[in-house]
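so my prof wants the structure for this chain in the tokens format not the other one, which i didnt know existed until like an hour ago. anyway here's the sequence
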Amino acid sequence: SRNSPTLEQANARLAQARSLQAASEAGLFPQVGLLARPARQEISANRPLTNYKSPNFATIQNDHILSMSASYEVDFAGRVQATIDGARATAEQTAADLENLRLLLAADLASAYFNLREIDTEIDVLRRAIGLQERALELITARHDLGAATGLDVAQQKALLSATRVQQELLRRQRGQFEHVSATLIGVPAPQFSLAPERRDIGLPTVPLGIPSDILERRPDVSVAERAMAAANAQIGVANAAFFPSIILNATGGYDANQMSKLFDEPSLIWSFGVAIAKTVFDGGRIKANAKAALAGYQATVANYRKVVLTAMQEVEDGITGLSALERAAEHADASARTAAHVLDMTTARYEGGASSYFEVIAAQQALLTSERQVAQINGQRLVTSVFLI
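here's what i got, hopefully its the right format
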């Protein structure tokens, strides 16, 4: 399943989230820029006067500038750190999403495989039943030709054989669907993928019981919900920081001259240093509304986290009780299949001795087929249930 296109999408989302995290962490460092601007320009004679006693003249001159500037935002209200925390939590949430997707793909693939093998077992049961019913049809046809059986007995056996073949074809259709699902999960076009029919006795994995409930923290979906809660909590910090002023330190240094040869002379030196403080005075309630929205978003993620944890506990409990019930059902199904086989032997012997009708033989054949298919189905359910429990 590593080749699944869905995994490729998740990997791309993770790369994007980590890039955004790196971009937000850059806010901890000063932003430094370099400017080099050689220019030849004309100054308008009609520009506004700087001195009413000194008229303006149009001049054409060179202007060569080489400077470096740096700015740094003082994280006075914790906005930058909250942004970084939120980006980090989002990246970790995306990573947990990827792990959850891998786990789900693996579980779906295992489930599809076990369902396919369970159908292989059922098809094998039907194949053996068809062989038995064909031999029974030959026997009843021969008895009919000798006058020892009625035409109704022959017709009943033919109907049973046809019904069993119909069930076999329906199972083959279901098997093809699970085969196609497996192909999609491993990233292969369905027409290019096939699994040869095989009846396999697959043992159930040992699932230890009585382990502490905090092992549920291993579930990626629980980690996803927890990290989403952390990211939403960081957004509260970002929203609340807007109530405080932003403080930015600016520094610029360089050279400015009208001749390239004088660019690095001492009189060409320029520099500046300052502090910019900005605070919103009136915004119509926008900042307050954003803070309330961030708090409501956080409360929603908390509720979702509780839901995910409770669902995880429910699924584990369903899996544990389900496996116990299916284990008991498997024991009863095995006993039922053995009894049905014994009943068929006795009914066939009674019919051959003339002590019962062929309808009883038909019923015994159907009961045996149903019991053997039920054994295969329960074993398949036990495997699938163990997959989802694990």
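also thought this was worth mentioning. The mean pLDDT is 89.
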